[in-house]
């Protein structure tokens, strides 16, 4: 099949990483366009050229005559098109619901270090970030993890039940990986409270479909994206 074009900013995993994991684990051919030579300029040109159904922001996926934006929407498309989600409508909507819940926590994780405005540097909002981080660590992370744990208690090995992972499982892995990087003390303190979530993380990390990717340079390190480690924002 003709490879998809994945457009997302180079240099950070960001929201594009949730899409990459699905493409890689699903064995779906794609080009990471912004990581090619001149990619930063190319992504700006491509976005400006898309007058019909223009993306608001990366990531967006182009292929088969369509352009699909928003991470959860891209994964909904890939899930149905490439068997990365249940075949029945109820199952697909359930996986999409989980993905949207993951997206909520991803947004909150970002807003810890940028609670006032994205256009301001972290140093311009450190006081507000410290206050936001305490609330996030103590209330929001446990609230979400408890829900994921509850889902797994009911469903079993994977978030949608059954014997095979879906894109939501890959995304929960990425969420947990990012939180472990950004809040290592807090996540270590919480680890024993959510054993099924921890085991799912380990299960995805060991998937044969992801072995080569996770150990390759294509797997970008964390840094200035959504998940950032500021020691002053972390505590057990």
TrEMBL record:
It comes from Bordetella genomosp. 8. The keyword Glycoprotein does not apply. One of its GO terms (biological process) is glutathione metabolic process. Residues 3-86 form the GST N-terminal domain. Keywords: Transferase. InterPro entries: Glutathione-S-Trfase_C-like, Glutathione-S-Trfase_C_sf, Glutathione_S-Trfase, Glutathione_S-Trfase_N, GST_C, GST_superfamily, Thioredoxin-like_sf. Gene3D superfamilies: 1.20.1050.10, Glutaredoxin (3.40.30.10). GO terms for molecular function: glutathione transferase activity. This is Glutathione S-transferase. Residues 88-222 form the GST C-terminal domain. Signal peptide: none annotated.
């Amino acid at each position: 099949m003709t490879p998809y074009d994945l457009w997302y900013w180079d240099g950070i995993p960001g929201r594009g990483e949730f899409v990459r994991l699905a493409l890689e684990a699903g064995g779906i051919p794609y080009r990471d366009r912004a990581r090619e030579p001149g990619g930063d300029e190319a992504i700006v040109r491509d976005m400006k050229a898309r007058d019909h159904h223009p993306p608001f922001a990366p990531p967006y996926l182009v292929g088969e005559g369509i352009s699909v934006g928003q991470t959860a929407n891209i994964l909904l498309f890939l899930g149905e098109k490439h068997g990365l989600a249940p075949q029945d409508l109820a199952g697909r909507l359930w996986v999409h619901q989980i993905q949207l819940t993951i997206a909520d926590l991803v947004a909150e994780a970002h807003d810890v270090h940028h609670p006032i405005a994205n256009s301001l540097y972290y140093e311009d909002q450190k006081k507000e970030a410290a206050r936001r981080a305490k609330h996030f660590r103590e209330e929001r992370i446990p609230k979400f993890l408890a829900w994921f744990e509850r889902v797994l208690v009911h469903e079993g090995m994977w978030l949608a039940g059954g014997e095979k992972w879906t894109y939501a499982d890959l995304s929960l892995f990425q969420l947990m990986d990012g939180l472990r990087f950004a809040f290592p003390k807090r996540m270590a303190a919480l680890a024993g409270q959510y054993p099924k979530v921890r085991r799912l993380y380990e299960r995805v990390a060991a998937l044969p479909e992801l072995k080569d990717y996770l150990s390759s340079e294509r797997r970008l390190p964390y840094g200035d994206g959504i998940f950032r480690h500021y020691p002053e924002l972390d505590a057990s």
